[in-house]
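Pipeline run #58 for the internal structure catalog. This entry was flagged by the ingest filter as a single-chain record with no existing model, so it goes straight to prediction. Upstream metadata was stripped on purpose; only the residue string is passed forward. Reviewer on rotation: M.T. Logging verbosity set to normal.
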Amino acid sequence: MLRTLGAQIKEFKKDSLLTPFFMIGEVIMETVIPLLMASIIDDGVEVGNMKHIYLIGILMVGAALIGLTFGIMGGKYGSRASAGFARNLRKAMYENIQTFSFSNIDKFSTSGLVTRLTTDVTNMQNAYQMILRMCMRAPASLICAMAMSFVISPRLASVYLVAVILLGAVLALIVSQATKHFIQAFPKYDALNESVQENVSAIRVVKAYVREEHEIEKFKKASNNIYKIFCKAEGIVIWNNPVMNFTVYTCILLISWIGAHMVVQETLTTGQLMSMLTYCMNILMSLMMLSMIFVMITMSVASARRICEVLEEKPELTNPEEPVHDVRDGSILFDHVSFCYKKDAETPVLKDINLEIKSGETIGIIGGTGSAKSSLVNLVSRLYDVTEGQLSVGGVDVRNYDMEALRNQVAVVLQNNVLFSGTILDNLRWGDKEASDEECRHACELACADEFIQKMPEGYQTYIEQGGTNVSGGQKQRLCIARALLKKPKVLILDDSTSAVDTATDAKIRKAFAEAIPGTTKLIIAQRISSVEHADKIIVMHDGQVNGFASHEELLATNEIYREVYDAQMSGSGDFDEKGGI
């Protein structure tokens, strides 16, 4: 874990080394000042030597200024190192997340990743700054002050030593008890973020079903869980102050009492007694800082583990040593393919799939909910790897391709269409960042999107809100289809991507595909038989297996499930999720 996190310090190593250097310099100056103050009292004030007072006074001012400069520089470099460390952590996590396959992403919730990128990284930033500054300053101050105390008076210094041992034991107990609660707190942030994310992204549904009170109650519950845990933790940590104050005042009383007797007995000077009292405060305040450091580090350990989980997660899908970069054509071959989302799953999602699809064919895929239609097409662009068998595109096993090259030639319009904040043209150019305005417009004409775009006040410069909330479901689907067409792919996959489009528009889109991209293999998942009946062949999926693979006419004649659903849809009484469906 330390190696993983340490690798993110990178260009801030110099700042990370300079910070403790300046902090130790500040401590040395703070240690020298009480000695100079003792000299002023003993050799200046008591004997009336004004020259000595002025000389030592100037030295004290110089030491204070040097200490102040060291403190400022330590704060500057410490802040830069910790902020840079946090920046690198976020960047490294985000970049690694982009390499994840779908199976990797399935291991982490969206809210969990957001918490790791925000709250957990902030905790690490604060902890790292405290380690660089306080973790060097507090022990150095404690050691220097203790050493000088023993030099001045071992008898009085023994009071410090006893106090440090007792106080250290009590603070260790407090920290260990508080740690348990701090560790429990961070997973609760995931639940809080999840509540906010769901509510904001689905705010229209919340209002449509008048569920505001339910969502507020759910948020309050998640927030209250965090509140209770932190109250327990802070309720334990709060004992730091009374224990510290009791120890400080007890030490001051004992040192004053014993020191006064020693001054009277002339075994200790007044200046030395003042120095001992100053060192007393330095020692005990250093202990207070150390206790807070332990609490912060303990809190950050939980965050560090969660961050390392993301940084150390290896993509399950990787390129071969010598990948193929050229996809010859859009032919697809499933050879005894089986697939499981989890390696230890007892029942595969897809079972012994055997299909041969020629380049340029239009293939319809139909089946009931849960029949593994989406799982089938996700394998084509290698969003997942097959568990058994072999899947080839263009005559080459998909596992032998460079993944970027393969996915550039297999365009997918997913079931859940996503548009990003930006103009319509910005979104379209996700398909081809170099596409001209005319190419974008042509793709939109094929997808029947140009007609509604032209009616918008700003046309193709219309700004799309995050998630495409300012366009309808059908408009969003058509924009996503146009975006996929701009890739000029060898294989085009439409995963139920015209479900929100009326049948007339659906027919226009299919006709445009047949005329404009005849050489592209088209896999069309649909619930409506009317959307795929003109396809070259239709795959009927049932319980993860191919129940039928033929033309519309052949399936009507030979496939009982297909025929029953066709009759139900033609009579307007059902689809593939109704009686007789899959």
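catalog note: The two ends are 49 Å apart (CA to CA).
catalog note: The mean pLDDT is 84.
status: ready for reviewer M.T.
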